[in-house]
């Protein structure tokens, strides 16, 4: 059986679990109808199943090559990208003024889920462009917008983010790349950036680099960093391409996965300085960059979702096809049966499928909170904007970290289902593990996400923001546990224990922060983040099961079975995570002797 | 800081946690002294640190090549192997009559831990040879032994195991390779075998293939399989090499990891039939093969231990070296500090180091049970032999599965500690994940180990064998919890909860088996296996901490800190696993709707 984009499942989650349909019903998107959502998603699914997904292995085998400063992508890649932007897929969220469709981020997220199922290395590039569009739209001058934004919105050109330097990754305070005002409104940029995703390629005629650098008089640390737009080719006033700018890819990383995504070392100013334009105010570059990074974190989380879906389908199809052994109770010496009959294989596949639905739900729900925030800002409702902004702030690190860790776990289970074939590269299962592994690292490692969650997001509105979420989660588990459906009632009561675990742990962390026990709180940040993801995920499965039942949706029984599996097989871990956070911090910090070299 | 074999830590675990010193004290090994153990292990450590470990990345980059039926290994590999066998490292456990040193399997296990730290792909080959030695020693005719055994014991020649065929992996009943008696005591072997580790290479002049095949009159299924010795080159009566046999490597797999270990497709009899000799009785080949596989399972478990140790050291050294951010409470804007100051990094490293000690302890303890069994058999003590044989039977699937799953988890954490550098192949962290991933699959997937544990090992002696283990574990937690040392007492009482979880789950599974609820028992097999590994591992950490304290060993504080970290941060998972086994089976089996294609 060949891979197919599971459009119906995704659309249900988008409309009913994330909440897009409520927003449509409330009139937040006058141009968007229920049917249009279906049509867009079906076409995305078709394009992906037919055009993107078949190139997955090809892209890994060919990878990218760097010769004389120019990166070439795998054969067929440029044509695929061209067809993809002609389908309008790059412009889903961009501003209408510059050719965008201004669709909700929820739809862009579901579409990104689709492309990541097809090929994560392909889907990654447009994520960066999307970030560049947001930063320019919010912070650039009208002149810069006029010159660059439409090309980026349509995907005619692509964007990059240039933060990292050899001595400066998670901590940007040590940044050394320099910018010097020329006097004509431009700047000369000199320095070296590393790990630049899609830093160079042959998919588009031009590439728009968003580069962080220091002005000569800038304060030390992160308050002295400015953001610059540095195009690969200068752009004439009529929009045609001019001279090549003084920026070049000088190195290409040899990576574990996503081989078709060029990770470049970029050299700026080897011949006097690359010409750049300031975006936003001087020394406020970090704030501008965070505009780019925030949604990028969600998009990285969605990479985990897409890879998990592909890994699940690959493993499920193999398990249906591969005969080995017999089912329990079959007559001895009878024919071998498909390995999907074995309980342990079913456990693995149930885990893969259910976790995929969980991280999809969390990620779409995060996009929903961002859409709500934007809608509230647009309508001038400050209270709503604050509420949903905080909600989005809490959900973003969870969507990023839990989805990416889970994506890798699911990909690894996919290898296991394949047995020996899983270790053979041609099978494709191993590539999904190799590809997905980066997602827990880039756009802020998952450890950094956990620090953000505990130290900045938990305390929002004095802890009220997170407590409101807990109350909502408790509402769903209560509704389930009061159901006349015995299975649903059991699920509700099991998941309610997880909500209580999360509640207790949240209170403990808030108290630790208040008491200044920062190291203890930080020691529990990663297990807390996972506890949050598991609990929220189980609650969203309940939500999906209840709504599917109410609507008589064909997925109702499936969603109930997933919620049941999750509640009884995966959710019990929450109690252990609570224990770890609450009782384990001091032992985790008492590490000097254990970590000393022999 | 460069990697170094942690000999002192390993020797303590070997002597005191596994129990080698007790056996030496009891006189089980008259030629072995406490000092000799130290000397052997120190020399192994030196050879590994200086000779094997530096070739790790080199072996991955070069890999193996197949040209005209001949596999070549990476440059330098053959010289390394030659030096290694000249050091006597291949002959540690072989029979004295054929040049072996007859050292305990515990020492061979610790040595194998050493070589796997150096390079898993290198350590893997001799594991197969070791299996061939055991099978021939137990089952071959005196003539075959005289011709082959000494060369295999010294490592002058290497051995292979040929089981798998395209349609026949975990289930060997469908095997098709044929053997036909020639009439002169030899057999003609024809057929194709896949996934043959070290199937061909240039390390030795000859390779001795142990091949499963069917005789013409053999019963169907696994009771009709016989074992044959098939040399790459025929051996003359004077021991010199004769004609090339009709066996050839015709394919080489392109794998996720262990690139320097050639995984071959072997073709037997393309030109009339490869000449082979029967080993053991006709149609009893599977029993002979299990002689090879049993210890091989432990050796695969030890691959997880070795890789975990290397991954830990690599990550720890990086965390000491890489400056990024500041510690809690440091003055703002001060210098960046090594990332090991961050609580989340310390948690990762503590997890890596503690889990490495756990799986080392379990694996050495498994070797100890096998040594006890062999000693009891040698001294004719049937009761002891039965007791320790059952103990070894229980420990083997746990040592195999828990150590390999954990090895991969630790390797993946190692990538995470490295941040973006972890995804770059040259760093080396990614290779450890790629290498280790196969260990959960080969020599019986970890799912197969779990089935073995639950359906064959749990019921040994009516469940008494496993209950005796639980009582012993409870003895250690009781001793700890009664200690005057408050920390130790807390650890004992925490770990005792895990022992109770394991106890309850064991009883539940035994009852399910008795009631014929086989599918339910099998659905919980994998979580039960992990529950067993975690509980036993925590208890062995306690044992190590108590004995180190009693002996005033310099590792005492470190071992206590590890036991504390484990008890409060990792052991809480056991309650969740109990829940999953006891309450989750029906939901895991209710998979039809969830796993159906959209």
Automatic annotation (TrEMBL), chains A, B:
<dbReference type="InterPro" id="IPR009100">
    <property type="entry name" value="AcylCoA_DH/oxidase_NM_dom_sf"/>
</dbReference>
<dbReference type="InterPro" id="IPR009075">
    <property type="entry name" value="AcylCo_DH/oxidase_C"/>
</dbReference>
<comment type="similarity">
    <text>Belongs to the acyl-CoA dehydrogenase family.</text>
</comment>
<dbReference type="InterPro" id="IPR006091">
    <property type="entry name" value="Acyl-CoA_Oxase/DH_mid-dom"/>
</dbReference>
<comment type="function">
    <text>Involved in the assimilation of dimethylsulphoniopropionate (DMSP), an important compound in the fixation of carbon in marine phytoplankton, by mediating the conversion of 3-(methylthio)propanoyl-CoA (MMPA-CoA) to 3-(methylthio)acryloyl-CoA (MTA-CoA).</text>
</comment>
<dbReference type="Pfam" id="PF00441">
    <property type="entry name" value="Acyl-CoA_dh_1"/>
</dbReference>
<dbReference type="InterPro" id="IPR025878">
    <property type="entry name" value="Acyl-CoA_dh-like_C_dom"/>
</dbReference>
<feature type="domain" description="Acyl-CoA dehydrogenase/oxidase C-terminal">
    <location>
        <begin position="283"/>
        <end position="453"/>
    </location>
</feature>
<dbReference type="Pfam" id="PF02770">
    <property type="entry name" value="Acyl-CoA_dh_M"/>
</dbReference>
<dbReference type="InterPro" id="IPR046373">
    <property type="entry name" value="Acyl-CoA_Oxase/DH_mid-dom_sf"/>
</dbReference>
<dbReference type="Pfam" id="PF12806">
    <property type="entry name" value="Acyl-CoA_dh_C"/>
</dbReference>
<feature type="domain" description="Acetyl-CoA dehydrogenase-like C-terminal">
    <location>
        <begin position="485"/>
        <end position="590"/>
    </location>
</feature>
<dbReference type="InterPro" id="IPR037069">
    <property type="entry name" value="AcylCoA_DH/ox_N_sf"/>
</dbReference>
<dbReference type="GO" id="GO:0016627">
    <property type="term" value="F:oxidoreductase activity, acting on the CH-CH group of donors"/>
</dbReference>
<feature type="domain" description="Acyl-CoA dehydrogenase/oxidase N-terminal">
    <location>
        <begin position="39"/>
        <end position="156"/>
    </location>
</feature>
<dbReference type="InterPro" id="IPR036250">
    <property type="entry name" value="AcylCo_DH-like_C"/>
</dbReference>
<feature type="domain" description="Acyl-CoA oxidase/dehydrogenase middle">
    <location>
        <begin position="161"/>
        <end position="267"/>
    </location>
</feature>
<keyword id="KW-0560">Oxidoreductase</keyword>
<protein>
    <recommendedName>
        <fullName>3-methylmercaptopropionyl-CoA dehydrogenase</fullName>
        <ecNumber>1.3.99.41</ecNumber>
    </recommendedName>
</protein>
<dbReference type="Pfam" id="PF02771">
    <property type="entry name" value="Acyl-CoA_dh_N"/>
</dbReference>
<dbReference type="GO" id="GO:0050660">
    <property type="term" value="F:flavin adenine dinucleotide binding"/>
</dbReference>
<keyword id="KW-0274">FAD</keyword>
<keyword id="KW-0285">Flavoprotein</keyword>
<dbReference type="InterPro" id="IPR013786">
    <property type="entry name" value="AcylCoA_DH/ox_N"/>
</dbReference>
<dbReference type="InterPro" id="IPR052166">
    <property type="entry name" value="Diverse_Acyl-CoA_DH"/>
</dbReference>
């Amino acid at each position: 059986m060949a891979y197919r984009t599971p459009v119906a499942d995704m659309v249900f989650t988008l409309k009913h679990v994330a909440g897009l349909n409520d927003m449509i019903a409330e009139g937040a998107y006058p141009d968007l109808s229920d049917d249009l959502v279906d049509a867009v998603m079906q076409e995305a699914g078709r394009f992906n199943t037919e055009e993107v997904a078949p190139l997955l292995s090809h892209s890994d085998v060919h990878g990218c090559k760097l010769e004389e400063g120019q990166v070439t992508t795998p054969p067929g890649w440029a044509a695929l990208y061209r067809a993809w932007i002609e389908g309008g897929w790059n412009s889903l969220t961009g501003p209408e003024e510059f050719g965008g469709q201004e669709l909700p981020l929820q739809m862009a997220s579901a579409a990104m889920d689709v492309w990541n199922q097809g090929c994560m290395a392909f889907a990654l590039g447009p994520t960066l462009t999307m970030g560049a569009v947001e930063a320019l739209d919010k912070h650039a001058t009208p002149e810069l917008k006029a010159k660059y934004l439409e090309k980026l919105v349509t995907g005619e050109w692509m964007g990059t983010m240039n933060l990292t330097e050899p001595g400066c990754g998670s901590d940007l305070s040590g940044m050394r790349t320099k910018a010097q005002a020329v006097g004509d409104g431009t700047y000369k940029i000199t320095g070296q950036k590393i790990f630049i995703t899609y830093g160079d390629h042959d998919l588009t005629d031009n590439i728009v680099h968003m580069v962080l650098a220091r002005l000569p008089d800038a304060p030390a640390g992160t308050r002295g960093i400015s953001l610059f737009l540095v195009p690969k080719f200068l752009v004439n006033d009529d929009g045609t391409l001019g001279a090549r700018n003084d920026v070049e890819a000088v190195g290409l990383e040899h990576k574990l996965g996503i081989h078709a995504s060029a990770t470049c070392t970029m050299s700026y100013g080897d011949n006097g300085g690359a010409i750049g334009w300031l975006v936003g105010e001087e020394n406020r570059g970090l704030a501008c960059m965070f505009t780019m990074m925030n949604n990028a974190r969600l998009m990285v989380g969605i990479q985990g979702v897409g890879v998990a879906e592909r890994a699940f389908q690959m493993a499920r199809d193999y398990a249906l096809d591969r005969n080995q052994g017999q089912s329990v109770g079959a007559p001895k010496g009878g024919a071998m049966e498909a390995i999907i009959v074995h309980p342990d294989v079913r456990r693995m596949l149930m885990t893969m499928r259910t976790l995929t639905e969980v991280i999809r739900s969390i990620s779409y729900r995060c996009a929903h909170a961002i859409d709500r925030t934007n809608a509230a800002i647009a309508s001038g409702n400050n209270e709503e904007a604050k509420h949903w902004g905080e909600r989005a702030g809490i959900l973003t690190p969870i969507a990023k970290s839990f989805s990416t860790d889970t994506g890798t776990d699911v990909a690894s289970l996919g290898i296991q289902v394949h047995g020996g074939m899983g270790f053979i590269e041609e099978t494709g299962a191993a590539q999904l593990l190799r590809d997905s592994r980066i997602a827990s690292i880039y756009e802020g490692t998952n450890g950094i996400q956990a620090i953000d969650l505990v130290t900045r997001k938990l305390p929002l509105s004095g802890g009220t923001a997170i407590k409101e979420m807990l109350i909502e989660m408790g509402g769903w588990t209560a509704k389930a546990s009061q159901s006349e459906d015995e299975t649903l009632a059991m699920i509700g009561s099991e998941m309610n224990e997880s909500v209580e675990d999360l509640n207790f742990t949240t209170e403990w962390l808030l108290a630790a922060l208040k008491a200044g026990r920062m190291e203890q709180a930080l020691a529990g940040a990663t297990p807390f983040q996972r506890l949050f993801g598991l609990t929220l995920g189980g609650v969203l499965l309940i939500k999906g099961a209840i709504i599917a039942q109410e609507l008589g949706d064909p997925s109702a029984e499936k969603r109930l079975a997933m919620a049941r599996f999750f509640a009884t097989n995966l959710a019990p871990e929450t109690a252990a995570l609570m224990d770890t956070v609450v009782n384990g911090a001091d032992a985790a910090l008492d590490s000097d002797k254990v970590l000393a070299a022999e």
